[in-house]
Write a structure and sequence with these properties.
There is one protein chain. The protein is an all-alpha fold. It has a single domain, classed as Tetracycline Repressor, domain 2 (Orthogonal Bundle), CATH 1.10.357.10. The protein contains nine helices and no strands.
């Protein structure tokens, strides 16, 4: 019998190898030839699934996003993880996540000069906003009572902070062990929560003052 090939799995395998190659050698050096060699396939086999390197990059981005979404939306767990543990899943705290994050950083470096990658990045950013907002809503019971403007500021601050840790770790991994990443994220969440609670209280007070005036 002929061997049954799972084409989706093979595409994912190639995409994951591309992540590793880009993380180790940089975007420009991640040629289709090198990706094929690292994956153990011929260039013809890779070309069967992807027309260009950009197509491989796009597939890798979608795959990473899907994996991050799975980590940020755990199911079948009796005790749901807290917000800190949940958001830690987006940090480069182990080898798998480091490779994903190094790939992201390399991708961002290509975005300004490529219109198609700009469109993809815009879509990815929207997806990240959606994912992290869901995490914050689940992690903080007060989230729903905060004004929309406060929610927006907190959400974008969290994403900006995580992106900053990601870039710093990729640039200087030895300076950012997992414990330091988590510690800084914990501090940032505490500061943002405190600010948001104070901001929400001030907003309610102002509204009450206007109503009684």
């Amino acid at each position: 019998m002929p061997k049954i090939v799972d084409h989706e799995q093979r595409r994912n395998e190639i995409a994951l190898v591309a992540c590793r190659v880009v993380a180790q050698h940089g975007f420009d050096q991640a040629t289709i030839v090198r990706i094929a060699r690292e994956a153990g396939y011929t260039t013809g086999m890779v070309a069967h699934y992807f027309d260009t390197k950009q197509d491989i990059v796009t597939a890798a981005l979608r795959l990473i996003l899907r994996r991050i979404e799975e980590r940020l939306t755990p199911s079948g767990v009796e005790e749901q993880p807290g917000l800190l543990a949940l958001l830690t899943e987006a940090l480069p705290v182990d080898e798998t996540r480091y490779i994903e994050c190094a790939f992201w950083i390399a991708f961002w470096g290509q975005v300004p000069a490529d219109r198609r990658l700009k469109r993809i990045n815009t879509w990815l950013h929207r997806e990240y906003l959606r994912l992290f907002e869901r995490c914050l809503e689940r992690g903080w019971t007060q989230w729903g009572s905060w004004p929309a403007s406060t929610q927006e500021q907190v959400l974008r601050s969290v994403i900006t902070f995580i992106n900053g840790i990601t870039a710093s770790t990729v640039a200087s991994r030895g300076d950012w062990p997992a414990e330091r990443q988590v510690g800084q994220l914990r501090l940032q969440l505490e500061l943002l929560h405190g600010w948001a609670m104070g901001s929400a209280t001030s907003t309610v007070s102002r509204k009450s003052g206007k109503a009684s005036a």
